[in-house]
Amino acid sequence: MARKIGSHSEITGPRVRQAALTLFARHGYAAVSMRQIAAEVGVQAGALYNYTADKQALLFDLMQTHMKDLLVALDACSDTGNALRRLETFSRFHIRYHLDRPDLVFIAYMELRNLSDENFAAVEALRGRYEARLRDILTQGIDERAFSVPDVKVASMAIIAMLTGITTWYREEGRLSRAEVEEIYWQMVRKAVSA
Amino acid sequence: MARKIGSHSEITGPRVRQAALTLFARHGYAAVSMRQIAAEVGVQAGALYNYTADKQALLFDLMQTHMKDLLVALDACSDTGNALRRLETFSRFHIRYHLDRPDLVFIAYMELRNLSDENFAAVEALRGRYEARLRDILTQGIDERAFSVPDVKVASMAIIAMLTGITTWYREEGRLSRAEVEEIYWQMVRKAVSA
DNA sequence: GATTGAAATGAACAGACGTTCAGATACTTT
DNA sequence: AAAGTATCTGAACGTCTGTTCATTTCAATC
Questions:
Q1: CB-based contacts with strand C under 7 Å?
Q2: In a shared domain, residues A114 and A175
Q3: What number of C-beta contacts closer than 8 Å exist between A and B?
Q4: Is B139 helix (H, G, I), strand (E, B) or coil?
Q5: How far is A4 from chain B, CA to nearest CA, in Å?
Q6: pLDDT tens digits for chain B (195 residues)?
Q7: CA of B163 to nearest chain A CA: how many angstroms apart?
Q8: How deeply is B179 buried, as exposed, middle or buried, from its count of CB atoms within 10 A (0-12, 13-18, 19+)?
Q9: Rounded to whole angstroms, how far apart are CA atoms A62 and A51?
Q10: Are residues B99 and B41 part of one domain?
Q11: Of A121, A141, B70, B184, which sits with the fewest C-beta atoms within 10 Å of its C-beta?
Q12: Do A62 and A34 share a structural domain?
């Protein structure tokens, strides 16, 4: 046997990335073998190398794409009002976007140390650009005398850590709806930086 | 060659755990081999099995001990004043304890999925007891009309995520001292739950 | 100084790892 | 219908994995 019936790269390619995403998120990059990924897709391990240079590239592709998409989505919904309004938009966007992609968030968070040096630098740069968006908002809020934060850098890290942490406990079938969680967290963020 | 000069279990034992701790934190449990740990200690891989049943037990021992120590240390410094005072004590304790043990915190956070089912349950139970301490404080604060939090469970998760996140960016040689970081974060926590 | 027990070696085990590649098969184009 | 190309198999590669164990060495006890 060789080529399978109905096999196409535009079908198998995404399925490889999806399988890698799911498995990496569940067991961790180092704990997942290429043979496991292949089994999930329904091919032999060798076939994966039609879609990725190697295992490392598979991880990097997932993380880089995620960070780029995150930035594009953020910029697409950012508004230009006052700082409080912008912070609310940012907070709600962050929660929604991350709750929609728990596996990608988990990987982007946990697998940084499994990236090669140059791949790490690339992802870290994208992460830095995202954090800079929040720092801009906080700086504006200080100028407007609307916020009281002793250190913009620290506050931005604190807010992002708090919001991203939702993905570690939120369950779709849980006690609270997304809208409720979003509201609770936004109120905490708002008060945390309030003057 | 066999037994080495000056070898003692009371020396090698802790060194095995220390090496495992450092390597697990840096590369992840799955990415570290028993031979790497042994090399760090300066013995052959087989010698590790005088100190641990297997690799899994090494991870579980680190995590369980960490969580138990955390609970003991928390209870040792907890006070019985009003909720605001108790929350401040908790927040400052959490920051200090975690900044002192970045590797343990990292592992307790990241390697949960590499625990066997029963080991996971044991660690998760200890984690739950720690979170319960914070929930108690928040509940008291609501009773005292000192706090305004719409959901105690969610607020406790948000606070812990925010505080624990410090370990992901704090550097000893960085711009801010521990005391400064502690103060900034405590003010954010205080405001976030304020009435 | 002989005996004993703890502590470590070093080789071995069977299996899994990432990756490569010649060859087989299915689809597309001519 | 034939030729060509994209896709996948299946086997192989060298290396590494966690773990076991007979053997050896060191340190303490008698």
A1: A 1-7, 32-36, 45-46, 49, 54-56; B 1-4, 7-12, 38, 42-47, 50
A2: yes
A3: 100
A4: helix
A5: 34
A6: 566 766 676 789 999 999 999 999 999 999 999 999 999 999 999 999 999 999 999 999 999 999 999 999 999 998 889 999 999 999 999 999 999 999 999 999 899 999 999 999 999 999 999 999 999 999 999 999 999 999 999 999 999 999 999 999 999 999 999 999 999 999 999 999 998
A7: 7
A8: exposed
A9: 13
A10: no
A11: A121
A12: no
